[in-house]
Amino acid sequence: RCIGWEAQLDYGHGTGHGVGAALNVHEGPHSISPRWGNKEVMKKGMVVSNEPGLYEDGSFGIRIENLLETTFVNDEDNEAYDNGLEEGDEGYPEKPA
């Protein structure tokens, strides 16, 4: 949305939602939408749709839809998680203060 906001554009739907838990559309437990007020934290392995759009009233509209898997930014965090460690466990990578 940031690129659109910089051009003073926005779209009237959420950016994304969960996928695959119950084979429904717009599944939780997470969503990226100002309407739903969802407070669920994204966790490694969750699948989320990414659906930005651009619409010109009375003229055209386009929406790009992709599915993304949530992961950590740092490889060491992914490795720790994949090895069964959680934040706070001994051996889990420390974060800078």
Describe the structure.
The structure is a single chain. By secondary structure, this protein is of the alpha+beta class. The chain is built from two helices and six strands; from the N terminus they run αββββββα. The strands form three sheets. The protein has a two-stranded antiparallel ribbon. The radius of gyration is 17 Å and the shape is elongated. The two termini are 30 Å apart. The model has no long low-confidence stretch (mean pLDDT 80).
Question: How are the SSEs ordered, and which strands pair?
Answer:
Layout (H helix, E strand, L loop, with lengths): L1 H5 L9 E3 L8 E6 L14 E4 L2 E4 L3 E4 L2 E4 L5 H8 L15
Antiparallel strand pairs: 1-2, 3-6, 4-5
Q: Which segments are poorly predicted (pLDDT under 50) over 5 or more consecutive residues?
A: none
Tell me about the biggest sheet? 2 strands, antiparallel
N-to-C order of helices and strands: HEEEEEEH
Q: Return the structural class.
A: alpha+beta
CA-to-CA gap between the ends?
A: 30 Å
What's the pLDDT, averaged over the residues?
80
Shape: elongated
**Can you count the beta strands?**
6
Tell me roughly what share of residues is in helical segments. 10-25%
Strand content: 25-35%
Strand numbers in spatial order across the main sheet = 1-2
The rounded Rg comes to 17 Å
Work out the helix count: 2
Q: What's this, in brief?
A:
This protein has 97 residues and is α+β, with helices and mostly antiparallel strands. The chain has helices spanning 2-6, 75-82, and strands at 16-18, 27-32, 47-50, 53-56, 60-63, 66-69.
